[in-house]
Amino acid sequence: MSKVTKVLEMEVPYMQQLPSKIAPANIMDRTDTLVFYRAIASHPAFRLLRTCLEKAGESQAGETQGGDTQAGKAPSAAGLYTAFLHELASAKVTAGLPGQAWQKLLLHLILFDENPFTLACERKAAAAELFPAVAHDLHILADWYLLDFTSLEPAEPALMPAVKPWEEERLCAADPLFAEVVTTAAQAAAWRDGRLAAILAAFHQRWGSGRMAAYAAFRWQDGHLLGIPQPDPIRLEHLHSYEAERQVVLKNTERFLSGLPADNILLYGDRGTGKSATVKALLWRYAAAGLRLVELPDRHLSDIWQVFSLLSERGHKFLLFIDDLSFEAGDTGYKPLKAALEGSLAARPANVLVYATSNRRHLIRELASDRSGAETTGGARRLSEEDMRPADTVHEKLSLSDRFARTVIFPTPDQEEFLTIVRQMAARFHLNLAEERLRERALQWALWHNGRTPRAARQFIDDLRAELAELGQVGETEVPR
Predict the structure, then answer these.
(1) Would you say 210 and 168 are in contact if contact means Cβ atoms under 8 Å apart?
(2) What is the structure's pLDDT at 248?
(3) What's the domain range around 464?
(4) Measured between alpha carbons, how far is 465 from 229 in angstroms, rounded to an integer?
(5) Residues 6+ apart with CB under 8 A from 320
(6) Residue 270 CB burial class (10 angstroms; 0-12, 13-18, ≥19)
(7) How far apart are CA 451 and CA 457, in angstroms?
């Protein structure tokens, strides 16, 4: 248990146990006094529910005073409530949260709210002094969480139990700490006796605040970080061969996560050798340790300092992933990256590394004239005006790859290495084919398709699995030619 969590638990005053349900009265005004979790009250479903309660209160007041309740008010209240239910059904929440639809949504909003408290936990900063305000907010939100909807239901049967929000799988939900949050939130008293606040602090220390807790992978697009709900599911255990090459990447990443000096890495090799898959698989191994992956398309390299600025403010460790990096001879788009790696007066943030993949060892296309310093015109050779110093041109084009402190080379496998990869994949999917038949089909596939690469091996196995499934022969020893 973290130091912050222990401090929170020690400073929490005991509060009386909550009732199992809260009547919809006198909680609206208190909601306006939320300190950290104010954004939750702006969610469309929350606003609609609040309006429903206000309408219900007006209706009850009219009946008590014996006045005209206005025939149009009841339909309006019913319409508001069904609009609220529609918003609930349209909402996206994390799979595995307890309770009915409203409780799922509210707990989801609390878990992934970005506020001074959750950010302090993410950065491992002292958050104990913020706890009285957190306790105040959870006290109010508990009333909303335990709200009794009986008086709001316009007719029988009750509609709330039939509403199911859209549930999304998230990496954090596989963590036992997430299960502890769920278990704690299901206990009414935990909202006010400090236990929920303490477990939320521990959750945010491990997974972060806001979208950094909700997502582990991001894409830079149009000046914004967009969370990727379903990142590539590739795991390190699913990758075959290249153990030595991947071990270099793993060791460097672990040093980075431990706060030790680590290098920017260029993963170089022919297409389909598993360079990109290696980087993507790191996410599943190290997300719980604070690693986040941010994909930066090479067309947006000019935004790299903007990305650095955003990431430097967070408590995570980030791999800035640039896939298939290469430039044509006259392209100068590489210069922002070159300066960001080394050479700029501003330093790269300590919590960011750059991992790039490329099919070109030196990243920028080289021409024969770069080394000869001459152009040919009508069979005659003349010095190019821009190449008066050809050595400088060569050095400029080599300098980008040199800025990566470490280059990991993924060579194309030979035939036997390719077949070994195929056999390992076939065993993983329990395709018990005759050895010779598997070999024959795999080499035929490599000849007709994408050569002898791990990608080609995976494509072959995927095609073979589909073929076997169609024939109802999964696990059989014979496959039609």
Answers:
(1) no
(2) 97
(3) 415-471
(4) 27
(5) 294, 296, 304, 307, 311, 352, 353, 354, 355
(6) middle
(7) 9
Structure tokens at 47: 């606003």
- pLDDT tens for 52-73 read 888 876 665 555 555 554 544 4
CA distance 373 to 4: 64
pLDDT tens digits, residue range 116-160? 999 999 998 877 889 999 999 999 999 999 988 877 776 666 788
Examine residue 435 and state whether it is found in any structural domain, yes or no.
yes
Nearest of 78, 30, 27, 33 to residue 52 by alpha carbon: 78
Structural domain count, the chain? 3
Task: Determine, yes or no, domain membership for 369.
Answer: yes
* Encoded amino acid at 61, one letter: A
Same domain, yes or no: 51 and 173: yes
480 found inside a domain? no
| Contact call for residues 475 and 432 (beta carbons, < 8 A) | yes
Mean per-residue pLDDT of the chain: 83
Q: Is residue 362 part of a domain?
A: yes
Q: 172: which 2 tokens?
A: 């954090």
Residue 247's CB is within 10 A of a number of other CB atoms, namely 11
